[in-house]
Specification:
Length: 304
């Protein structure tokens, strides 16, 4: 299938990191008519994007030729390597251009990179997202932005091609702070849904009926809807990998420690993610918390 880009926007975009999220976000930029060059260490998603009308940037330096560069990488060291490493964005991007980092990474590392880039006349927004691969696929992501308001306004059409809710949270790093708050709420919510449906099953009550009833009441949540359905199906294929959620909760706990915020439920769930990692399940979906609970309770929520 070929999607022809009409390149109706003045901004040229470089996109680095075409994983579960990035490849879908890049597709939506093409659909919206942006001129896009793409780069990933993995060739397969690059080839797919080329068939849809993207250009092959070939390297980080190649992607840096664009006016706006988007990064969607796993963790803080990955973004630091791409931005500050040899041949990285800090040395290759032109003054007046903008880096939008949409990865979920450390707020303090983000502030340091923004400062380094500003010294070279390059603007930066931190713009991590929530909404999962479904949100990336459907361009309905919630995008949490840190950085200057005027830079956000210039980038708004780009962000609107990938997301539905664009929130300006504050200065550099504020988007990343918002993201760790989001992850704390999501992880605890997944654990809550897992506990509720496991309890139903242990009582001999149909967890599918419980999920439907709860969706109509105060316990309604996206975690109950999407992850509750996963638990009923026994489907733990990522999605959002345990490794990445573990990284996000580590960032939240580090931040809690630095700011004197007590996060007891987050700390407990982080231990459970450690168990999944130690038992070879780091690449399952982050909803695999339910697997542990079922193992510990000696029950299976899925009917097959
Ligand atoms: P992923 O691991 O599927 O994709 C990351 C991609 O980056 C991979 O294709 C990898 O090859 C590429 N990459 C790594 N280092 C690179 C480098 N130096 N140069 C070029 N490419 C490089 O991860 P993902 O699930 O797409 O998540 C990306 C970010 O978005 C993470 O920070 C994650 O926490 C966040 N996030 C993910 C989800 C989700 O549901 N998956 C939801 C919200 C936010």
């Amino acid at each position: 299938m070929t999607t022809t880009s009409n390149n109706s926007h003045p901004e040229k975009i470089g996109f680095i990191g075409l994983g579960i999220m990035g490849r879908r976000m890049a597709r939506n930029l093409l659909k919206a008519g942006f001129s896009l060059s793409v780069h990933d260490l993995n060739r397969e998603p690059v080839e797919e994007l080329l068939t849809l009308g993207a250009a092959d940037a070939g390297s980080v330096a190649g992607a840096a030729k664009a006016n706006i560069v988007i990064t969607m990488l796993p963790d803080t060291p990955d973004v630091e390597a791409v931005v500050l490493g040899e041949g990285g964005l800090a040395s290759e991007m032109q003054p007046g251009s903008i880096l939008i980092d949409m990865s979920s990474i450390s707020p303090t590392a983000t502030q340091a990179m923004a400062q380094e880039l500003a010294a070279r006349g390059i603007e930066m927004l931190d713009a991590p997202v929530s909404g999962g691969f479904q949100g990336a696929e459907n361009a309905t992501l919630s995008i949490m932005v840190g950085g200057k308001a005027d830079v956000l306004e210039r980038c708004r059409p780009v962000l609107e091609a990938m997301g539905k809710t664009i929130s300006h949270i504050g200065g550099h790093g504020a988007g990343q702070v918002c993201k760790i708050c989001n992850q704390v709420a999501v992880a605890i919510n997944i654990q809550a849904v897992a506990e509720a449906l496991t309890l139903a099953k242990k009582n001999g009550v149909d967890p599918a009926k419980v999920r439907t009833a709860l969706l109509g009441g105060f316990a309604q949540s996206r975690a109950l809807d999407l992850h509750g359905q996963r638990f009923l199906e026994g489907n733990y294929a990522a999605g959002f990998r345990v490794t990445l959620q573990r990284k996000d909760l580590r960032l939240a706990l580090e931040n809690g420690s630095a700011t004197g915020t007590v996060l007891p439920a987050t700390a407990l769930i982080q231990q459970l993610y450690g168990v999944l990692d130690a038992t070879g399940r780091a690449n399952l979906d982050n909803s695999a918390l339910a697997l542990l609970l079922q193992e510990m309770s000696g029950v299976q929520v899925a009917s097959t």
